[in-house]
Amino acid sequence: MKLGLQLGYWSAQPPQGVGELVAAAEDAGFDAIFTAEAWGSDAFTPLAWWGRETSRVRLGTSIVQMSGRTPASIAMHALTLDHLTGGRVVLGMGVSGPQVVEGWYGVPFSKPLARTREVVSIIRQVLAREAPVTNAGPHHPLPYDGPGAVGLGKPLKPIVHPLRADLPIWLGAEGPKNVAQTAEIADGWIPIFYTPKSAGMYQPWLDEGFARPGARRTRADFEIAATCHLQIVENAEQKQQVIDGMKPFVSLYMGGMGAKEQNFHHQVFTRMGYGELADEVQELYLSGEKDKATALIPDELVDDMHIIGTPGEVRERVAQWEETGVTTLLLSCRSAAEVRQIAELLA
């Protein structure tokens, strides 16, 4: 199992010390650096900025929100960065949620699976550069012939010859239909809240996708990149402090990320067996009682979602994650020293 450095997306200000983190990950043998986006910083710019100082690690997005750009625009970003990095890009994408898609990007959220299929198809056409790119689907018609069209759209091939037609496309997916489609059309999967205890829930969904006619990959060459926080501690007291510090993030995603009527993260926790808890946390969080919502998060849930423990405990837990099929562990790290410590422990 490979290690990746998860830089995530920015908070109120650009993070400090990222250059040192990236350099340490490259030197310590990490396989990849990943960035993300929400409704502030974008994923591609930080990846290019900090990735320019690297020469070996893969550079990935986890995830690019598909509604924020047209499929051709996403393909242009990916093929350009792939050339500049000598073929080290992993394009991770996802649909996001209705609050962001309709509230921030101002486009419809409906039919997320069909939209995903069209986006992936168009990007693969661009990267293959075998013929002018066309798409008959209703979500991203190329050439565009809908309302306001002047009728002069022309199918085009990219001017730049892509470095790799098989540039890896990974998809963020949470529900059973989305996970199955990911196994069918993508090269890898970026789950959220994937844990050793919940891993068995996903296996039939993945198998359904692999079994579909024309599936791109098999389980043998399909990548699963799971994100977690890994922290080495000296004793149980320190571990409890870390667990308590992670609870606000869990309550945010369980109760406050997304609309009450359609919160995909809430649905994941429900499928994991925390339905009643998720409902209560959401009710409190959305009513402004965030501290009370956070206080309800059980220690065992945080411990399952993340890897926190003494060196021996961490090695044992990492092995458990690998046994479930995870091929890359995307880790959030706080310092270059922590990056080196983790790499040395798991070497």
From TrEMBL:
InterPro entries: F420-G6PD/mer, F420_OxRdatse_Rv3520c_pred, Luciferase-like_dom, Luciferase-like_sf. Gene3D superfamilies: Luciferase-like domain. GO terms for molecular function: oxidoreductase activity, acting on paired donors, with incorporation or reduction of molecular oxygen. Pfam families: Bac_luciferase. Keywords: Oxidoreductase. NCBIfam families: F420_Rv3520c. This is Coenzyme F420-dependent oxidoreductase. It comes from Nocardioides simplex. The lineage of its organism: Bacteria, Bacillati, Actinomycetota, Actinomycetes, Propionibacteriales.
